[in-house]
Specification:
By secondary structure, the protein is mostly helical. Among the domains are: 130 residues, no CATH class; 118 residues. Helix content is 70%, strand content 1%. The chain has a two-stranded antiparallel sheet. The protein is elongated and about 90 Å long.
Length: 409
Amino acid sequence: MNTTQIIDHPTLMELARLLYRLELLMQAGRGESPEADDLRERMDGLGADLSREEVEAMKGISADLYSLSDPPHQALPMPEDAAKELLRLPELVQSKCFHAAFDLLRNHEKLIPPARLALERYRIWSALGEDEIAADFLRLAFKNDLRWTELTVDERQAAREHCMRIVSDPEKHQPTLVRSATAIVLTLSADLSESDLKLLITASERDIQRLEREKVADNPEDARAFARHAQLLKTLGRVADAIEVVNRGLEFSPDNTELLAVRGPLIFVSDPEQAYRDCDRVVSAGKYPPDVCLLLAHRALEGQNYRECLRFCIAHMDSMNSHGLKPSGQALALLMEWSAISHAGLGYPAEIVDAFFDEAIRLTRGNDNIRQNKELFHKHSKIQSPFDWQKETPETVSKIAETIFRPAA
Protein backbone atom coordinates (compact mmCIF):
# COMPACT_ATOMS: atom_id res chain seq x y z
CA MET A 1 0.00 0.00 0.00
CA ASN A 2 1.29 3.47 -0.87
CA THR A 3 2.47 5.41 2.21
CA THR A 4 0.38 8.41 1.18
CA GLN A 5 -2.74 6.27 1.63
CA ILE A 6 -2.07 3.83 4.45
CA ILE A 7 -3.37 6.00 7.27
CA ASP A 8 -6.27 7.26 5.14
CA HIS A 9 -7.55 3.69 4.85
CA PRO A 10 -11.07 3.81 6.42
CA THR A 11 -10.55 0.57 8.34
CA LEU A 12 -7.23 1.73 9.78
CA MET A 13 -8.68 5.06 10.78
CA GLU A 14 -11.60 3.36 12.56
CA LEU A 15 -9.17 1.00 14.30
CA ALA A 16 -7.13 3.99 15.45
CA ARG A 17 -10.25 5.62 16.92
CA LEU A 18 -11.19 2.39 18.73
CA LEU A 19 -7.63 1.99 20.02
CA TYR A 20 -7.73 5.53 21.34
CA ARG A 21 -11.00 4.91 23.17
CA LEU A 22 -9.52 1.74 24.68
CA GLU A 23 -6.50 3.74 25.83
CA LEU A 24 -8.83 6.23 27.56
CA LEU A 25 -10.64 3.40 29.33
CA MET A 26 -7.33 1.92 30.45
CA GLN A 27 -6.21 5.31 31.78
CA ALA A 28 -9.45 5.45 33.77
CA GLY A 29 -8.81 1.97 35.24
CA ARG A 30 -11.56 0.38 33.17
CA GLY A 31 -9.42 -1.76 30.90
CA GLU A 32 -11.27 -4.93 31.92
CA SER A 33 -14.78 -3.46 31.73
CA PRO A 34 -17.56 -4.71 29.40
CA GLU A 35 -17.11 -1.51 27.38
CA ALA A 36 -13.42 -2.30 26.87
CA ASP A 37 -14.25 -5.90 25.89
CA ASP A 38 -16.72 -4.57 23.31
CA LEU A 39 -14.02 -2.34 21.82
CA ARG A 40 -11.59 -5.29 21.59
CA GLU A 41 -14.24 -7.41 19.88
CA ARG A 42 -14.91 -4.68 17.33
CA MET A 43 -11.18 -4.28 16.70
CA ASP A 44 -10.75 -8.03 16.19
CA GLY A 45 -13.51 -7.97 13.59
CA LEU A 46 -12.02 -5.01 11.72
CA GLY A 47 -8.50 -6.39 11.90
CA ALA A 48 -9.31 -9.83 10.53
CA ASP A 49 -8.75 -8.86 6.89
CA LEU A 50 -5.75 -6.56 7.28
CA SER A 51 -2.64 -7.21 5.26
CA ARG A 52 0.72 -7.75 6.96
CA GLU A 53 1.73 -4.18 6.10
CA GLU A 54 -1.48 -2.81 7.58
CA VAL A 55 -1.01 -4.86 10.76
CA GLU A 56 2.49 -3.37 11.18
CA ALA A 57 1.07 0.09 10.65
CA MET A 58 -1.51 -0.49 13.38
CA LYS A 59 1.15 -1.76 15.79
CA GLY A 60 3.00 1.51 15.35
CA ILE A 61 -0.12 3.59 15.83
CA SER A 62 -1.02 1.55 18.90
CA ALA A 63 2.40 2.25 20.45
CA ASP A 64 1.98 5.96 19.71
CA LEU A 65 -1.42 6.07 21.36
CA TYR A 66 -0.22 4.20 24.44
CA SER A 67 2.45 6.89 24.83
CA LEU A 68 -0.35 9.26 25.90
CA SER A 69 -0.13 7.74 29.39
CA ASP A 70 3.62 7.02 29.48
CA PRO A 71 5.92 9.06 31.75
CA PRO A 72 8.18 11.50 29.85
CA HIS A 73 11.51 10.13 28.71
CA GLN A 74 14.92 11.78 28.91
CA ALA A 75 15.84 12.61 25.32
CA LEU A 76 19.25 11.43 24.13
CA PRO A 77 21.61 13.81 22.29
CA MET A 78 20.39 14.47 18.73
CA PRO A 79 22.92 13.49 16.04
CA GLU A 80 23.19 15.89 13.12
CA ASP A 81 21.91 13.37 10.57
CA ALA A 82 18.80 12.67 12.67
CA ALA A 83 18.11 16.40 13.02
CA LYS A 84 18.31 16.75 9.23
CA GLU A 85 15.92 13.84 8.71
CA LEU A 86 13.38 15.37 11.08
CA LEU A 87 13.35 18.53 9.00
CA ARG A 88 11.33 16.48 6.47
CA LEU A 89 8.34 16.24 8.83
CA PRO A 90 6.42 19.34 7.67
CA GLU A 91 6.79 18.31 4.02
CA LEU A 92 5.59 14.76 4.76
CA VAL A 93 2.50 16.03 6.60
CA GLN A 94 1.74 18.61 3.93
CA SER A 95 2.07 15.90 1.26
CA LYS A 96 -0.26 13.64 3.29
CA CYS A 97 2.49 11.04 3.73
CA PHE A 98 1.16 10.44 7.22
CA HIS A 99 2.46 6.91 7.67
CA ALA A 100 5.96 8.04 6.70
CA ALA A 101 5.68 10.96 9.15
CA PHE A 102 4.65 8.63 11.98
CA ASP A 103 7.51 6.27 11.15
CA LEU A 104 10.03 9.10 11.08
CA LEU A 105 9.01 10.19 14.57
CA ARG A 106 8.97 6.61 15.82
CA ASN A 107 12.46 5.94 14.48
CA HIS A 108 13.89 8.92 16.37
CA GLU A 109 11.54 9.16 19.36
CA LYS A 110 14.30 8.56 21.93
CA LEU A 111 16.15 11.59 20.55
CA ILE A 112 13.19 13.99 20.55
CA PRO A 113 12.26 15.88 23.75
CA PRO A 114 8.84 14.69 25.04
CA ALA A 115 7.08 18.01 24.47
CA ARG A 116 8.22 18.24 20.86
CA LEU A 117 7.41 14.58 20.17
CA ALA A 118 3.84 15.07 21.42
CA LEU A 119 3.57 18.34 19.47
CA GLU A 120 4.61 16.67 16.20
CA ARG A 121 2.12 13.86 16.76
CA TYR A 122 -0.53 16.48 17.46
CA ARG A 123 0.29 18.12 14.12
CA ILE A 124 -0.16 14.86 12.23
CA TRP A 125 -3.45 13.93 13.90
CA SER A 126 -4.68 17.47 13.44
CA ALA A 127 -3.92 17.27 9.73
CA LEU A 128 -5.93 14.04 9.66
CA GLY A 129 -8.92 15.89 11.18
CA GLU A 130 -9.02 13.74 14.31
CA ASP A 131 -9.92 16.37 16.91
CA GLU A 132 -9.99 14.07 19.93
CA ILE A 133 -6.65 12.36 19.37
CA ALA A 134 -4.99 15.61 18.27
CA ALA A 135 -6.22 17.45 21.38
CA ASP A 136 -4.91 14.69 23.64
CA PHE A 137 -1.43 14.85 22.12
CA LEU A 138 -1.49 18.64 22.50
CA ARG A 139 -2.48 18.14 26.15
CA LEU A 140 0.52 15.84 26.56
CA ALA A 141 2.80 18.41 24.91
CA PHE A 142 1.72 21.12 27.36
CA LYS A 143 2.01 18.68 30.26
CA ASN A 144 5.60 18.09 29.17
CA ASP A 145 6.31 21.85 29.33
CA LEU A 146 5.56 22.93 25.79
CA ARG A 147 5.41 26.72 25.53
CA TRP A 148 2.44 27.88 23.50
CA THR A 149 4.75 30.21 21.56
CA GLU A 150 6.12 27.10 19.81
CA LEU A 151 2.84 26.91 17.89
CA THR A 152 2.39 29.06 14.82
CA VAL A 153 -0.41 31.63 14.85
CA ASP A 154 -2.45 29.45 12.48
CA GLU A 155 -1.85 26.38 14.65
CA ARG A 156 -3.00 28.23 17.76
CA GLN A 157 -6.22 29.24 16.03
CA ALA A 158 -6.81 25.75 14.64
CA ALA A 159 -6.11 24.12 18.02
CA ARG A 160 -8.44 26.55 19.74
CA GLU A 161 -11.21 25.83 17.22
CA HIS A 162 -11.07 22.06 17.42
CA CYS A 163 -10.81 22.16 21.23
CA MET A 164 -13.87 24.42 21.35
CA ARG A 165 -15.73 21.83 19.24
CA ILE A 166 -14.97 19.28 21.97
CA VAL A 167 -15.96 21.65 24.77
CA SER A 168 -19.21 22.63 23.05
CA ASP A 169 -20.44 19.02 23.02
CA PRO A 170 -19.06 17.49 26.25
CA GLU A 171 -21.47 14.56 26.35
CA LYS A 172 -19.86 13.07 23.23
CA HIS A 173 -16.36 12.98 24.75
CA GLN A 174 -14.51 11.52 27.70
CA PRO A 175 -14.51 13.92 30.70
CA THR A 176 -10.72 13.98 30.88
CA LEU A 177 -10.53 15.05 27.24
CA VAL A 178 -13.10 17.82 27.73
CA ARG A 179 -11.02 19.01 30.67
CA SER A 180 -7.85 19.01 28.57
CA ALA A 181 -9.59 20.85 25.73
CA THR A 182 -10.81 23.50 28.18
CA ALA A 183 -7.28 23.98 29.51
CA ILE A 184 -5.84 24.28 26.00
CA VAL A 185 -8.39 26.92 24.97
CA LEU A 186 -7.52 28.97 28.04
CA THR A 187 -3.80 28.60 27.34
CA LEU A 188 -4.11 29.71 23.73
CA SER A 189 -6.63 32.54 24.13
CA ALA A 190 -5.78 36.10 25.09
CA ASP A 191 -9.44 37.10 24.94
CA LEU A 192 -12.59 35.02 24.92
CA SER A 193 -16.07 36.01 23.88
CA GLU A 194 -18.79 35.80 26.51
CA SER A 195 -20.43 32.93 24.60
CA ASP A 196 -17.15 30.95 24.57
CA LEU A 197 -16.65 31.65 28.27
CA LYS A 198 -20.12 30.33 29.04
CA LEU A 199 -19.43 27.13 27.07
CA LEU A 200 -16.16 26.65 28.94
CA ILE A 201 -17.85 27.29 32.29
CA THR A 202 -20.62 24.79 31.50
CA ALA A 203 -18.09 22.09 30.60
CA SER A 204 -15.92 22.93 33.60
CA GLU A 205 -18.87 22.85 36.00
CA ARG A 206 -19.84 19.38 34.72
CA ASP A 207 -16.28 18.24 35.37
CA ILE A 208 -16.10 19.36 39.00
CA GLN A 209 -19.62 18.08 39.70
CA ARG A 210 -18.44 14.70 38.43
CA LEU A 211 -15.39 14.87 40.70
CA GLU A 212 -17.56 15.65 43.72
CA ARG A 213 -20.08 12.98 42.80
CA GLU A 214 -17.43 10.29 42.38
CA LYS A 215 -15.53 11.47 45.47
CA VAL A 216 -12.24 11.19 43.61
CA ALA A 217 -8.94 10.98 45.42
CA ASP A 218 -6.80 14.04 46.02
CA ASN A 219 -4.56 14.55 42.98
CA PRO A 220 -3.11 17.59 41.16
CA GLU A 221 -5.14 17.18 37.96
CA ASP A 222 -8.45 17.17 39.82
CA ALA A 223 -7.47 20.13 41.98
CA ARG A 224 -6.46 21.98 38.82
CA ALA A 225 -10.01 21.49 37.48
CA PHE A 226 -11.41 23.44 40.46
CA ALA A 227 -8.76 26.14 40.07
CA ARG A 228 -9.50 26.50 36.36
CA HIS A 229 -13.24 26.74 36.95
CA ALA A 230 -12.71 29.47 39.53
CA GLN A 231 -10.56 31.44 37.09
CA LEU A 232 -13.28 31.19 34.46
CA LEU A 233 -15.90 32.47 36.89
CA LYS A 234 -13.63 35.33 37.92
CA THR A 235 -13.23 36.30 34.26
CA LEU A 236 -17.00 36.80 34.10
CA GLY A 237 -16.89 38.89 37.27
CA ARG A 238 -18.44 36.18 39.45
CA VAL A 239 -15.87 36.52 42.24
CA ALA A 240 -18.07 35.16 45.05
CA ASP A 241 -18.86 32.06 42.97
CA ALA A 242 -15.16 31.66 42.15
CA ILE A 243 -14.20 31.76 45.84
CA GLU A 244 -16.90 29.18 46.63
CA VAL A 245 -15.52 26.84 43.93
CA VAL A 246 -11.94 27.15 45.23
CA ASN A 247 -13.13 26.36 48.75
CA ARG A 248 -14.92 23.28 47.40
CA GLY A 249 -11.67 22.21 45.79
CA LEU A 250 -9.72 22.76 49.01
CA GLU A 251 -12.09 20.34 50.75
CA PHE A 252 -10.65 17.66 48.45
CA SER A 253 -7.07 18.93 48.50
CA PRO A 254 -6.42 21.23 51.50
CA ASP A 255 -2.74 21.80 50.75
CA ASN A 256 -2.94 22.16 46.99
CA THR A 257 -0.82 25.15 45.99
CA GLU A 258 -2.68 25.79 42.72
CA LEU A 259 -5.93 26.26 44.61
CA LEU A 260 -4.26 28.45 47.23
CA ALA A 261 -2.64 30.51 44.46
CA VAL A 262 -6.07 31.16 42.98
CA ARG A 263 -7.82 31.88 46.29
CA GLY A 264 -5.21 34.35 47.54
CA PRO A 265 -5.80 36.98 44.84
CA LEU A 266 -9.55 36.34 44.89
CA ILE A 267 -9.93 37.20 48.59
CA PHE A 268 -7.21 39.88 48.70
CA VAL A 269 -9.64 42.80 49.03
CA SER A 270 -12.05 41.15 51.47
CA ASP A 271 -9.51 39.27 53.62
CA PRO A 272 -5.93 40.41 52.90
CA GLU A 273 -4.38 38.57 55.86
CA GLN A 274 -5.77 35.20 54.74
CA ALA A 275 -4.77 36.05 51.17
CA TYR A 276 -1.19 36.63 52.31
CA ARG A 277 -1.21 33.35 54.26
CA ASP A 278 -2.37 31.51 51.13
CA CYS A 279 0.35 33.19 49.06
CA ASP A 280 3.03 32.40 51.68
CA ARG A 281 2.11 28.71 51.54
CA VAL A 282 2.40 28.76 47.76
CA VAL A 283 5.85 30.36 47.83
CA SER A 284 6.98 28.05 50.64
CA ALA A 285 6.29 25.16 48.27
CA GLY A 286 8.68 26.72 45.72
CA LYS A 287 5.94 28.05 43.41
CA TYR A 288 5.90 31.66 42.19
CA PRO A 289 2.73 32.41 40.18
CA PRO A 290 2.80 35.98 38.85
CA ASP A 291 -0.23 37.31 40.72
CA VAL A 292 0.97 35.74 43.99
CA CYS A 293 4.32 37.49 43.51
CA LEU A 294 2.51 40.78 42.89
CA LEU A 295 0.58 40.54 46.16
CA LEU A 296 3.65 39.57 48.17
CA ALA A 297 5.64 42.42 46.60
CA HIS A 298 2.85 44.77 47.71
CA ARG A 299 2.97 43.46 51.28
CA ALA A 300 6.76 43.81 51.39
CA LEU A 301 6.55 47.38 50.10
CA GLU A 302 3.87 48.29 52.65
CA GLY A 303 6.13 46.90 55.38
CA GLN A 304 9.16 48.78 53.96
CA ASN A 305 10.90 45.45 53.36
CA TYR A 306 12.44 46.77 50.17
CA ARG A 307 14.74 43.86 49.35
CA GLU A 308 11.83 41.46 49.65
CA CYS A 309 9.73 43.72 47.41
CA LEU A 310 12.44 43.69 44.73
CA ARG A 311 12.76 39.91 45.05
CA PHE A 312 9.06 39.41 44.32
CA CYS A 313 9.04 41.98 41.51
CA ILE A 314 11.83 40.00 39.82
CA ALA A 315 10.11 36.67 40.58
CA HIS A 316 6.94 38.01 38.96
CA MET A 317 8.76 38.84 35.72
CA ASP A 318 10.66 35.54 35.72
CA SER A 319 7.40 33.63 36.17
CA MET A 320 5.72 35.52 33.33
CA ASN A 321 8.66 34.88 30.99
CA SER A 322 8.89 31.18 31.86
CA HIS A 323 5.23 30.75 30.82
CA GLY A 324 5.57 32.79 27.63
CA LEU A 325 3.29 35.48 29.07
CA LYS A 326 3.48 39.25 28.89
CA PRO A 327 2.25 41.53 31.68
CA SER A 328 -0.15 44.31 30.87
CA GLY A 329 1.21 47.84 30.76
CA GLN A 330 -0.53 48.57 34.07
CA ALA A 331 1.06 45.60 35.85
CA LEU A 332 4.52 46.33 34.45
CA ALA A 333 4.23 50.01 35.39
CA LEU A 334 3.30 49.01 38.94
CA LEU A 335 6.36 46.75 39.15
CA MET A 336 8.59 49.55 37.85
CA GLU A 337 7.12 52.03 40.37
CA TRP A 338 7.58 49.62 43.27
CA SER A 339 11.13 48.93 42.10
CA ALA A 340 11.80 52.68 42.08
CA ILE A 341 10.42 53.07 45.63
CA SER A 342 12.39 50.04 46.85
CA HIS A 343 15.64 51.30 45.34
CA ALA A 344 14.99 54.68 46.96
CA GLY A 345 14.35 52.99 50.31
CA LEU A 346 17.62 51.06 49.97
CA GLY A 347 19.55 54.29 49.32
CA TYR A 348 20.36 53.79 45.64
CA PRO A 349 21.49 56.84 43.60
CA ALA A 350 18.74 59.13 42.28
CA GLU A 351 19.51 58.28 38.64
CA ILE A 352 18.69 54.60 39.24
CA VAL A 353 15.47 55.47 41.08
CA ASP A 354 14.51 57.93 38.32
CA ALA A 355 15.11 55.30 35.62
CA PHE A 356 12.47 53.03 37.18
CA PHE A 357 10.04 55.91 37.74
CA ASP A 358 10.48 57.11 34.15
CA GLU A 359 9.81 53.62 32.76
CA ALA A 360 6.66 53.37 34.89
CA ILE A 361 5.47 56.77 33.65
CA ARG A 362 6.18 55.79 30.04
CA LEU A 363 4.12 52.63 30.39
CA THR A 364 1.05 54.39 31.83
CA ARG A 365 0.98 57.96 30.63
CA GLY A 366 -1.33 60.10 32.69
CA ASN A 367 -0.86 58.13 35.93
CA ASP A 368 -0.68 60.98 38.45
CA ASN A 369 0.15 58.67 41.35
CA ILE A 370 3.49 57.65 39.80
CA ARG A 371 4.39 61.24 38.92
CA GLN A 372 3.56 62.38 42.45
CA ASN A 373 5.73 59.66 43.94
CA LYS A 374 8.65 60.71 41.75
CA GLU A 375 8.20 64.32 42.87
CA LEU A 376 7.93 63.24 46.52
CA PHE A 377 11.15 61.25 46.15
CA HIS A 378 13.07 64.31 44.95
CA LYS A 379 11.45 66.56 47.57
CA HIS A 380 12.46 64.27 50.42
CA SER A 381 15.92 63.67 48.95
CA LYS A 382 16.70 67.38 49.20
CA ILE A 383 15.86 67.56 52.90
CA GLN A 384 17.17 64.04 53.58
CA SER A 385 13.93 62.88 55.19
CA PRO A 386 12.25 59.46 54.80
CA PHE A 387 10.37 59.01 51.53
CA ASP A 388 6.64 58.73 52.31
CA TRP A 389 5.05 57.61 49.03
CA GLN A 390 1.45 57.56 47.83
CA LYS A 391 0.29 53.97 48.40
CA GLU A 392 -1.92 51.85 46.15
CA THR A 393 -5.16 50.55 47.65
CA PRO A 394 -5.77 46.78 47.82
CA GLU A 395 -8.61 47.29 45.32
CA THR A 396 -6.21 48.85 42.80
CA VAL A 397 -3.58 46.14 43.27
CA SER A 398 -6.24 43.41 42.93
CA LYS A 399 -7.62 44.98 39.75
CA ILE A 400 -4.16 45.23 38.20
CA ALA A 401 -3.37 41.63 39.18
CA GLU A 402 -6.31 40.52 37.04
CA THR A 403 -4.73 42.12 33.94
CA ILE A 404 -1.36 40.39 33.99
CA PHE A 405 -2.23 37.22 32.08
CA ARG A 406 -1.94 38.13 28.42
CA PRO A 407 -0.12 35.95 25.86
CA ALA A 408 3.15 37.49 24.77
CA ALA A 409 3.29 38.88 21.24
